[in-house]
Amino acid sequence: MHIVFAGTPEFAARSLEALIAAGHQVVAVLTQPDRPVGRGFKVIPGPVKRTALAAHVPVYQPATLNTVETLGLIRSFSADVMVVSAYGQLLPSEILGATRLGAINIHASLLPRWRGAAPIQRALQSGDAETGISIMQMDQGLDTGPVLLARHCPILAHDTGHTLHDRLADLGARTIIEALEGLKAGKLKPVPQPLAGATYAHKITTAETLLHWEKDADQLALDIRAFNPVPVSRTYLRGELLKVWEAEALPGENKDVPGTVLSLDETGLSVVCGKGRLVLQILQRAGGKPMTAREFFKGFPVVPGERLEG
């Protein structure tokens, strides 16, 4: 098939690589404009752009899709289909119809659950047992179009945002190849999403990464897994910001104020929660690197009775 591909991050790059490897003719790639990243604010091309350039596929980075010029550009390719994956912009209705078979989206959830910007993190936060990939025929709504193909993916006990992202990215790459084969053969039928069970995966904010110790330890542990590796959960000790990369929830009742440090041993730093306790295992100071709790507190001593604050 002749394909226009629209995507930006690593999740999308895996699918672009698979499309090229499978022999599809990717005639153009749309991706977000390059932006400065890191402490040095260096402008670095995104994963999709790097993948496209390495394969000698033309790359276009319009600031907006809402222009006559962009619409004309996409129509000029006479592509069979537009494949979209984590592009970062809503597609106008004219763009959705600019290719023969319209636009299909690779979405990292089992729709209608977790429509929106952060389906991987929200599935982890909610303690879902499984998630998956939905290949969806795009319409004017936000992830509301009919589903062409869905594949399930279990969420494992120690999955983080990083590990689940990588498995779903690989599954998405395999599923889009399968979906395009089905489309070409006329074997896929769009199935409208049911009204029941629809949830929205709001974009992650920095404010919600703060650990509020009055929460249950189980929920805090889920939050930490969801926000690893971006944007990373955090707390404060003596006014200094600490990032928490890994933690384990344990049962237990106590009378101490939530956030109180109970102990520090080989398992980590044990902290009182609204229910149960949370053992912090991997931490990071500003400007430092992640390390085990025992290594961390050699240079940042903590004593039982001190309080962490969210």
**CATH topology name of the largest domain:** Rossmann fold
Which CATH architecture of the largest domain is right?
Answer: 3-Layer(aba) Sandwich
Largest sheet, described in full? 7 strands, mixed
Helix content: 25-40%
Strands of the biggest beta sheet: in what spatial order?
Answer: 5-2-1-6-7-9-10
Number of separate helices:
8
Category from helices, strands and their pairing: alpha/beta
Poorly predicted runs: none
Query: Any idea what the CATH superfamily of the largest domain is called?
Result: Formyl transferase, N-terminal domain
- The 3D shape can be described as elongated
Rg (CA only): 22 Å
Number of β-strand runs: 17
| Spatial separation of the terminal alpha carbons | 51 Å
Mean pLDDT score, rounded? 95
SS strand fraction: 25-35%
* CATH top level label of the largest domain: Alpha Beta
**Count of domains:** 2
Would you list the SSEs in sequence order as H and E? EHEEEHEHEHEEHEEHEHEEEEEEH
